[in-house]
Amino acid sequence: MKNSDYNNSHFDVVVCGAGLAGLSFARQLRLEQPERSIAILDPLTPPIPDAIWKVGESTVEFGSHYLAGFLQLEDYLKETQLKKLGLRFFYSNNGSMASRPEFGLSDFAEFPTYQIDRGILERDMRDMVRADGTVFLEGCQVRKIELSYDGAHRIIFTDTTAGAGADGALTAKWVVDATGRRQLLQRQLKLKQPSEGKACSSAWFRIPGRVDVDDLVSRENGEWHDRVPESRRYFSTNHLCGAGYWVWIIPLSSDVTSVGIVARDDMHPFDAYNTREKAIEWLKGNETELGAYLEGQEMLDFKFMKEYSYSSAKVFSEERWACVGEAAVFADPFYSPGTDLIAIANTMTVDMIRRDFDGKHDPSRIEYYSDYLIELNDELTRSIQHGYDYLGDETVSFARGLWDYTAAWGHLCPLLFNRAFTDEQKQQAMQPRGVLPLFVIAVFMRRLLDEWLQHRRKYGGRLTYDFVNYLSIEWLAEHRRSNLQEQESLEALGARYRSNLELHEELLQAVFLIAVEDVHPEQLDRLKEVEWMNVQKLTLDPLKWESSGMFKPRTRPRPFRHLYTELRSRLKLQDNSQQSDRQKLAM
Fold it and tell me: Is residue 195 within 8 Å of residue 381, measured between CB atoms?
């Protein structure tokens, strides 16, 4: 059928946009509510090329589970995408790649994650949703959405397949805006809000073939290469980090490599790297070995975004519209949360539609979902971009990375793996009864890391590392394993979640001991007999330990020194020259 044959047709749901967010939403809705009539409008027309310019390739456990499980794409991902060797970080750019502290994995983890070639995935998903029975109107640019309070929205579009173009319209009870950064509804309703974090910008490009960090280190350095055998580093999302910035290197299954620069504007002005030529020069100045490696190589494309993060006043409405993906909000990409936020927004929207067609339209729940997604986006952005201060210091970044992984696996993963976002009973089971909530502990951790960084900058620090394989840390590996699965009962879910919260508080105390040993080793004896502390009062100023109430805990004492012992075993004492150089670099 031609697009014009559907003109003025009515659907239960119309999706505007066929990027990752819109396509995955349509597939999820079809799988979970097969009786719904769905139409997608998108301006592209076949043949759809591999969209090598699309950014957002890296997934973590949360988003990978959504694609493989919720969307039933596990076999497809294994066949067409690259299995990922986790997130990997190289810190301290004051020296050769071989001398940089490295935080990453040596082998693939038990639960798979993927490097997503967005062009291939989205091209194939167009065929999937069409085969699922969704009406797909390609070559149709949505111009306006006339919202209706009685559930008969009118979506007006231009059909570029009809000669010089002709206007058409569909009506729908629900409309889902997945138009990406065009943000059709957000702009139409004036809902877009500035980022809650700090101004950060990015530029990125694709290089044909393999860009492998292993090639930056001589093969004669067997000790370095043996840490991660068989050149597996290539399959990680590699981050090269310095004060206020990080550079990503991501392999794609189409035999190209994605390279990107991300930086805080107040530390690295955007106009220093916002062209092809400037980007290479910036890399040569900040990531010398990578810059020299890339100089003269072909770039397949070059894209940039100034101040890329943003928020919203509302993303879902009781008037039966929803914004998903980049049409809603956009967090900082440091931990690859884009697919995670798509998973959450899509799952909430599918639930809102289900409730409505079941005769249980719930404005209060819709408002809760909207506020939840916005605050999650904003907190991710605030937290990540605040952490750009730490990127020039490998030891503080070591602690920050452990904390962030523990929090992500212990909070977000139980929500998605147990579908607790949309289940009131499960949400009740996950209330932090008798323990400190995560957002409270996170404030205390951030305060400790800030103070630690200040002390290292002022006085220097003693501790560093060569390589940390973070899943060789037994308690962290077990924490990950136990949370990447559905719990068997509400009681088990509640117990698991409260145990996670307790671990966060225990980890905070262990990190405090490491920080004291790093910057005030002479004070360690004062802490030998301390069994538990008040995490709200932790400070690296020994003169305030007694007066602040740090030794007067308010929560139930629990063992935590085993965490400290295992973390401390991954660190080493640095020599005086290293301490001096890294102190200067952190400035």
Answer: yes
Cβ density class 287-314: b for 16+ within 10 Å, e for less: bebbbebbeeeeeeeeebbeebbbbbeb
Rounded Cα gap, residues 256 and 240, in angstroms: 19
271 CB-near residues (< 8 Å, 6+ apart): 278
299, 320: one domain: no
Structure-token pair, residue 412: 């977000």
**Which run of H or of E encompasses 186?**
helix 184-188
Under a CB-based contact definition with an 8 Å cutoff, are residues 71 and 28 in contact? yes
387 part of a folded domain: no
Same domain, 399 and 523: yes
**pLDDT digit string (tens) for 390-440?**
999 999 999 999 999 999 999 999 998 999 989 999 999 999 888 899 999
Whether residues 472 and 545 fall in one domain: yes
Burial group, residue 76, by CB count within 10 angstroms (0-12, 13-18, 19+): middle
Supply the range of the domain harboring residue 538: 393-586
Kindly state whether residues 111 and 256 are assigned to the same domain.
yes
Give the CA dihedral 31, 35, 36, 38, nearest 10 degrees: 70
Domain final residue, candidates 342, 372, 402? 372
Q: How many domains does the chain have?
A: 3
- Domain co-membership, 483 together with 403: yes
Tokens of 328: 């809603």
Of the candidates 9, 29, 69, 132, the one whose C-alpha atom is nearest the C-alpha of residue 356 is 29
Using a cut of 0.85, tell me whether the model's pTM lies above it.
yes
Residue 303 reports pLDDT greater than 60: yes
Query: Which DSSP state fits 575?
Result: P
In a domain, 63, yes or no: no
Angstrom distance (rounded) from CA 417 to CA 279: 40
Instruction: Using alpha carbons, list the distances in angstroms from residue 268 to 201, 273, 275, 302, 547.
Output: 9, 9, 14, 19, 41
Q: Same domain, yes or no, for 451 and 547?
A: yes
Q: Does 123 share its domain with 109?
A: no
Question: Do residues 218 and 242 touch, judged by C-beta distance below 8 A?
Answer: no
User: What average pLDDT does the chain have?
Assistant: 94
3-state SS assignment for residue 64? helix
- pLDDT above 70: percentage of residues in the chain: 97
Average pLDDT over residues 300-322: 96
Residue 104, domain CATH: 3.30.9.10
Whole-angstrom distance, CA of residue 276 vs CA of residue 205? 8
Q: How far is CA 17 from CA 13, 71, 132, 400, 451, in A?
A: 13, 18, 17, 37, 45
In this structure, is residue 497 part of a structural domain? yes
Q: Is residue 66 part of a domain?
A: no
Answer yes or no: do 34 and 128 share one domain: yes
